[in-house]
């Protein structure tokens, strides 16, 4: 997924893109194991009481659907405490503004089968001018 927050319809009906997608695909998600991964463009560090698109609210909606962040489960950390950035914002420098905004949510029943969660190296992606993001790779042993 790519949760773009800067389009005219990003907050249609007072809901952000992820929340609207979860509503649209709720039946599908409930029918079979589902993975939701990509650029969420969000983190709980930016949550505010009146903000329409709080990441904590989105994480709660995902949890209600039985989905958990593979990174946070594997690293045993809370949302907002990420030590590894996935976005090197603005100047694309390793020491510039950087944030963790890319996620992979997996069925809760899969979390014990996660064998590795890797944030790919800056040099291979941003340093090579391929993107301002680095991939988040999740290995699950069935």
Question: Could you explain how this protein is built, in words?
Answer:
The chain is an alpha+beta fold. The chain has a single domain, classed as 4-Layer Sandwich (Deoxyribonuclease I, Chain A), CATH 3.60.10. 24% of the residues lie in helices and 20% in strands. The chain has helices at 17-24, 26-31, 55-64, 70-75, 122-125; strands at 36-39, 67-69, 87-88, 98-99, 102-107, 114-119, 136-140. It has a 3-stranded antiparallel sheet. It is globular and about 40 Å long.
Rounded average pLDDT? 93
Helix content class: 10-25%
Class from helix and strand fractions: alpha+beta
Q: Categorize the overall geometry.
A: globular
Major pleated sheet: 3 strands, antiparallel
The whole-angstrom Rg is 15 Å
Q: Supply the CATH class.
A: Alpha Beta
Provide the CATH architecture: 4-Layer Sandwich
CATH fold field value: Deoxyribonuclease I, Chain A
Q: Whole-Å distance between the termini?
A: 23 Å
For the record, what is the CATH homologous superfamily label? Endonuclease/exonuclease/phosphatase
DSSP summary, beta strand count? 7
Give the helix tally.
5
* Beta-strand content: 15-25%
Ordered list of secondary-structure elements with their pairings:
Blueprint (H helix, E strand, L loop, with lengths): L16 H8 L1 H6 L4 E4 L15 H10 L2 E3 H6 L11 E2 L9 E2 L2 E6 L6 E6 L2 H4 L10 E5 L2
Antiparallel strand pairs: 1-5, 2-5, 3-4, 6-7
């Amino acid at each position: 997924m790519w949760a773009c927050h800067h389009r005219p319809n990003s907050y249609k009906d007072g809901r952000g893109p992820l929340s609207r997608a979860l509503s649209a695909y709720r039946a599908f998600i409930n029918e079979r194991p589902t993975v939701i991964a990509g650029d969420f463009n969000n983190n709980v560090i930016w949550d505010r009481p009146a903000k329409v698109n709080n990441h904590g609210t989105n994480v709660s909606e995902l949890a209600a659907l039985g989905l958990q962040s593979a990174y946070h489960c594997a690293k045993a950390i809370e949302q907002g405490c990420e030590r590894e950035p996935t976005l090197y914002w603005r100047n694309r420098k390793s020491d510039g503004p950087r944030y963790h905004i890319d996620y992979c949510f997996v069925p809760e029943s899969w979390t014990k089968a996660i064998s590795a969660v890797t944030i790919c190296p800056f040099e291979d992606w941003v340093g090579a001018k391929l993107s301002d993001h680095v991939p988040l790779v999740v290995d699950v042993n069935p």
